[in-house]
Every structure is written in C-alpha cells, then in structure tokens.
Amino acid sequence: MDSLSSSFASLDLNACSVDELREAAGSSIGAKTARAIVDYRYQSGPFRDFDQLYKVPGVGQTKVTALRQHTHIPGSTESVSASIRLQRSASNSSQDAADNKVDLNTAGEADLRRLKGVGPATANGIISMRRER
Predict the structure, then answer these.
(1) What is the DSSP secondary-structure string of the chain?
(2) SS3 assignment, position 11
(3) At a CB cut-off of 8 Å and minimum separation 6, what does 9 contact?
(4) Residues 6+ apart with CB under 8 A from 73
(5) CA angle 102, 9, 59 (to 5 degrees)
C-alpha cells in the first residue's frame, strides 16, 4: 500500500473477511450482503473498482456509497482520491475544533450552547457551578 493510501484508516475490500466488512460499513452492510461480496471476490478475483460491486447480488447504490466511504481498493484511483478527501476533511475538522474553543471558566450561556451537546440547562448548570466556587 502506498504512503497516501496508508495514511487513512479504511478496510481493504480485497482482503477483508465477512465480519470485518460488516464492522467497517456498520448498519449499511448486513451479514448476507457481506458474505455475497466476499464470495463474489473469491469466485471472480479481486475488485478493480467500486463499480464491480454492482455485479454482486443485493448490492445497489446505497451499499456501494457506504462501501466507498469505509473501504478502499488498492491501486484504484478512486481510493487514492478518497484518501485525499479524508485527509482534507480531517484537516478542516481540526481547524473547526480550534475555532470552536470556549473557556468554560468565563463563557456565557450563548457561548456554552454553541458546544455540541450543551443545551440551556447544561449551560446554566455550568454557570451556576462556577458561581458556587
């Protein structure tokens, strides 16, 4: 695997087991579909691109989209493009996290509510605890 492809965490579609495929794709791929993909690969040889998945019984657009997000095919130009997108996405997420920093010791309710999972009750609870100390 080249350094670009190895820099993102995804599953090699041509080397994974049924269980690994199910875990990687989450609820998008069930046991029957994962088995069909592995059986097809065993009978027809390694996948060269994601479009070949349409030949697997029970695999349609939704499942191919999920597999594109969670797996890669070594040597496929589509996999290299996906790794670049994932790297850019991770970089943007890091920047977003840095932009959303809030000082819990001084932030008001509105600033605290911008944080994921913090609603009015939690924000007011934080502010109340600060006042008590």
Answers:
(1) --HHHHTS--EETTT--HHHHHHHHGGGS-HHHHHHHHHHHHHH-S-SSGGGGGGSTT--HHHHHHHHHHEE-TT-HHHHHHHHHHHHHHHHHHHHHHHT---TTT--HHHHHTSTT--HHHHHHHHHHHHH-
(2) strand
(3) none
(4) 12, 13, 14, 46, 47, 48, 49, 50, 79
(5) 115
Q: Which two tokens stand for residue 19?
A: 């269980």
For residue 71, give the nearest of 80, 79, 61 by alpha carbon.
79
pLDDT over 90 percentage in the chain: 26
Which pLDDT tens digit goes with each residue over 13-70?
999 999 988 888 777 889 999 999 999 999 999 999 999 999 999 999 989 988 888 8
Instruction: Name the nearest CA neighbour of 24 among 32, 35, 12, 36.
Output: 12
Handedness of CA 8, 13, 19, 22 (dihedral sign): positive
Nearest to 50 by CA among 30, 80, 90, 22: 80
88 backbone φψ class: left, alpha, beta (φ>0; ψ -120 to 50): alpha
